[in-house]
Amino acid sequence: MRRILLATDGSDSSLNGAKFLAHLPHDETIELTVVSVLFVPGQDKSNLVGDWIATCLEQERTTAKETYAAIEAIFTGADVRLKSIIRKGRPAETIVSISKEIHAEMVVIGATGHSAVTRMLLGSTSDYVATHAPCSVLVVRSTGGLRGKHPLRVAIGYEPSGPAQAAVEEFAEFQWGAQTDVQVVTVNPLYNEREEQRRAEAADLAAEQLLQCAERSTGRVIKNDHVGEGLVKFAEVNDIDLMVVGETPRTRLSRILMGSMTRFVLRHAPCSVWITRNRMIHGFHDKHEITASESASSDS
């Protein structure tokens, strides 16, 4: 993964994304585009004083430049090529538009709030970008692992499907090292021993694929009627820092609706959420078929 868009508004929440990326070991140069959108609420209304709007926009521009300087400092010595884009517009739509312009492979954006209520509401910009971006999206929340209080703890939501396998492969593009704890978690909503065994074997196989980039990778099976709820509870109980979920790339018309499981995890998980869309694997279902009823259950 080379082209990453980092959206920032100068807040601590958005800077967490830069700090997270700075700690990811990688084998190739990352082209990091730092995007700041200048927006004054109500600026399109004619009753606002022009000088006041100009002053606010100039303050926003100054903040954007200061934030970019802070991000440059964070990446000092890293194999990263930095570029700044400052543009006027509505933040969510502008970020998605720029992600298409630069052919970004990932958009990184901060989430606001840590309480159950604020997680459920999620920042409107984060929600829009996560739903509409044509590439993978990482919504960053500050957790103990990101603050260096303990080694990073990662959970990858998994089932025998193309998007889930693609998530594993995209995750493996980074070298996570010997300290990162990675659990490939599959949820069995059917309470069927045979199905549980099949899913356990698939999770273990996926975990084995990650051993070269993350030495502490294991498979786990949990039971829950709702896949998204099961993953969120797992994240809460195990103090997870990053949840990775795969999603099928969508057409321009259907992208307005995100999979219900993905949306549930994004809004309710107490940790950062990485929605992978880039590496769909054709023919994966031929080896690991799941029935239509199981697919419907996993997206409920």
In short:
The protein is 40% helix and 24% strand. With 300 residues, the chain is an alpha/beta fold. It folds into two domains: 1-142, 3-Layer(aba) Sandwich (Rossmann fold), CATH 3.40.50.620; 144-300, HUPs (Rossmann fold), CATH 3.40.50.
Give a written overview of the molecule.
With 300 residues, the protein is an alpha/beta fold. It has 2 domains: 1-142, 3-Layer(aba) Sandwich (Rossmann fold), CATH 3.40.50; 144-300, Rossmann fold (3-Layer(aba) Sandwich), CATH 3.40.50.620. 40% of the residues lie in helices and 24% in strands. The chain is built from 11 helices and 10 strands. The chain has helices at residues 12-22, 50-74, 91-101, 116-121, 124-132, 162-171, 193-209, 227-237, 260-268, 284-287, 292-298, and strands spanning 3-7, 30-38, 80-88, 106-110, 136-140, 153-158, 177-188, 214-223, 242-246, 272-276. A 10-stranded mixed sheet has the order 3-2-1-4-5-10-9-6-7-8, sandwiched between helices. Helix 3 runs parallel beside helix 5 (124-132) and helix 8 (227-237) packs parallel to helix 9. The two termini are 31 Å apart. The model is unreliable at 113-122, 252-258 and 281-300 (pLDDT under 50). Pfam families: Usp. Belongs to the universal stress protein A family. This is Universal stress protein.
